[in-house]
Description:
Layout (H helix, E strand, L loop, with lengths): L3 E5 L11 H12 L3 E4 L10 H11 L4 E4 L2 E2 L5 H14 L4 E2 L2 E2 L5 H7 L6 H15 L5 E4 L4 E5 L13 E2 L4 H10 L2 E2 L6 H17 L10 E6 L6 H10 L5 H4 L4 H13 L4 E6 L6 H12 L5
Parallel strand pairs: 1-2, 1-12, 2-3, 3-5, 4-6, 9-10, 11-12
Antiparallel strand pairs: 7-8
Helix pairs in contact: 1-11, 2-3, 3-5, 6-7, 7-10, 10-11
Amino acid sequence: MKVRIAVGLGTTTPVLEQGLLGDVVDALEDLRFDSLWLSERVNGVAPDPLAALAWAAGRTTRLKLGMSVLVVPGRNPVLLAKELATIDRLSGGRLLPAVGLGAPDPREHQAFGVRREERAAWFDEALPLIRRLWTGESVDHHGERFHLEGVQVGPTPLQDPFDVWLGGLAPSELRRVGRLGDGWLPSFCTPDDAAERRPVVEQAAADAGRAMDPEHWGALVVYSATGLPEPLAARLAKRRPDVDPAALVPSSLDALRATCEAFVQRGFSKLVVLPAAEPADWQAELRALADALLPLQT
Length: 298
């Protein structure tokens, strides 16, 4: 099992200011983290992940590039297939597409033009269609939302297969991962949470005639080296009322390492760590993360 440590920037980091994104990307490459993950919030200060990851691809040579997550409902699947394939080609096969339904935020639903109750059906039709378009073959499709006659997308992704990661903890989300995903990257869960839910994904995959790659189990781990911020604690209490918020967000680098080790012990080897609050000094933060976590990489 190959353990890989990545860093995510979250939805509240204004990395477009004062060249910060360039500094972070350079440091991640130099320190030899596995990958950078950018989140999508249209109504926030975080950069658009497709644009920012394409820019990061041109600045780096080995750093992989992920999104946590890119919203599918509301996007044209043909254009999205081409955008993702293009970035994968230009980066030399370093893109890690992670996609989802989007945040439960009415402002986001307005931005994408898809009501919350419509997102799942949109996603379930769009992702298999995108996979067909990635083959480069002529595609005919007549679904509830999309109708294509002889549509062909090029270039195709450099990676073959082009693995797609999904998140989520709810039973319907877990079953979707098994039916449609190649990897699982849940967030705001404990190692035990993940281990307990993994069989649901595996069973859904088996029911669909598929099998999950044993290397494609991961987790997004939010941490806070200075104590759990009260606004985040309140959101977590609402989102996961069954779990102590402090159990979901490690409150020191030592606790973060212990959490990552616990995930690895349970077979989850792709770990994206994300600071709960903006670090005062990103360079110092990344060096500290490297010292604490990169020895886990195999």
